[in-house]
Amino acid sequence: MIIPFKSVSISHRTAPLTIREMVALNEEESKAFAIKCKDLFGLSELLIVSTCNRTELYYTTQANISEDLVKALLIEKGIEITSEFLNYFKHLNETEDSLRHLFEVATGLQSKVVGDLQIPNQIKKAYQLAADLNLAGPYLHRLMHTIFYSNKRVAQETSFRDGAASVSYATVALAEELSQAIPQPKVLILGLGEIGRDVCKNMEEKDFAEFTVMNRTQEKAEKIAQGMPFRVAPFSDLWEEISKADIIISSVRTEKPIITLDEIKKLQVLSFKYFIDLSVPRSIEDGIEKNPGILLYNIDSLKERADEALAARMASVPDVRVIIEESIVSFNDWSKEMEVSPTIHKLKNALESIRKEEINRHIKGLNKDEIEKLEKITANLVQKIMKQPILHLKAACKRGESEKMVDILNELFNLEHIEEFES
């Protein structure tokens, strides 16, 4: 019997950000917790996915350990009164449910921004960690590569990956587009509220420019920049940094604009300078484009871009689900065949033992060439004898009738005792 594939999940669909932040695991924490789970629960296959929107554990086991795993995670994060947090977690103890959930997460169907382009890389990193810790066995290896192939199909066969489907993604895409004609472009990100943080997160793996972040509370800027390729500048240097930057992205919360035409006029703008205003109310005065070389984009134009991309992605969702269902069927066929692989192995060993025994009885008096020919002929015979039982077993797997055939083969060839026979 194949070991069930299960999962536990806390995400933006089940818990607010403050709760998700409390249980999120960074790379080092994920590693430490994975090792602990291996020891505590005897897990041999475990995938830990932890992002700003979700923390999920996928694992194989016959035991019912979902709640214990959640409690272990909460305790690992220093939360001792675990009962107050248990209801935020979703438990998926049926293999089919867990498989479908992981496919949907990995393709971006479960993401806050549908079709999130970062999630495939986050899943790959989680898989790499599992492999490094010897927590990825045959089941997880095969599953991950099936998921990667599904993602490739989604990208090639649908519009689900096209465009930037959120304002923050659209901002990054616009900044990258604007920077193409600028040698050594500099991007300044002002304000690190929710949308500013999202822009930073989406810029993290980009390398098209030199990035500087700035916030009224510098500690917040330093915290966000930690581990990212960002430079931090004090808010008091606002106009000095604006003068150096080519692209300025502002999401500062303010009652009136902090970037005004009067201040812009004081700058020596020798080439184009692009401003992107994500603030509501606006933090950049609408008339700054009166100054030569200044171009301004506001949140409405970016939202329009994002809405168009999101509509295209949503239209592709049925096609993505078809790919997922096809992939799950293919993976399940493989996992069912895995159930009978020990029987196939034992049958091969049984026939090989008979072959060797018969060769040893007739080998006397034969020269080297004759022995090699005999080995080749009998090995080919075993292969041909094996072919039909294997085909029938695999067909029975797809019909869900493999158990009956396994019993017949065990009885015919006494396979239950083949290991004793071999030794």
Strand content: 5-15%
> CA-to-CA gap between the ends?
25 Å
For the report, how would you describe the main beta sheet?
A: 6 strands, parallel
Radius of gyration in whole Å, from Cα? Answer: 30 Å
Uncertain residue segments: none
Q: Which whole number gives the mean pLDDT?
A: 88
Please provide the ordered H/E string of secondary-structure elements: EHHEEHEHHHHEHEHEHEHEEHHHH
**Sheet/helix structural class:** alpha/beta
Shape: elongated
Task: Count all strands and give the number.
Answer: 10
* Helical amount: 55-70%
- Strand arrangement within the widest β-sheet reads 7-6-5-8-9-10
Helix segment count? Answer: 15
Textual characterization of the structure:
- The chain has 15 helices and ten strands.
- With 423 residues, the protein is of the alpha/beta class.
- The strands form two sheets. The protein has a six-stranded parallel beta sheet with strand order 7-6-5-8-9-10, with helices on both faces.
- Helix 6 crosses helix 12 and helix 13 (368-399) packs antiparallel against helix 14 (402-413).
- The chain is elongated.
- 35% of the residues are buried.
Give descriptors for this structure.
elongated, 56% helix, 423 residues, 4-stranded antiparallel sheet, 6-stranded parallel sheet, alpha/beta
Quick take:
The protein has 423 residues and is α/β, with parallel strands linked by helices. It has helices at residues 17-23, 27-41, 66-76, 95-107, 119-132, 138-157, 167-179, 194-203, 218-225, 238-244, 261-265, 299-362, 368-399, 402-413, 418-422, and strands spanning 5-11, 46-50, 54-60, 90-92, 186-190, 210-214, 230-232, 247-250, 273-277, 294-298.
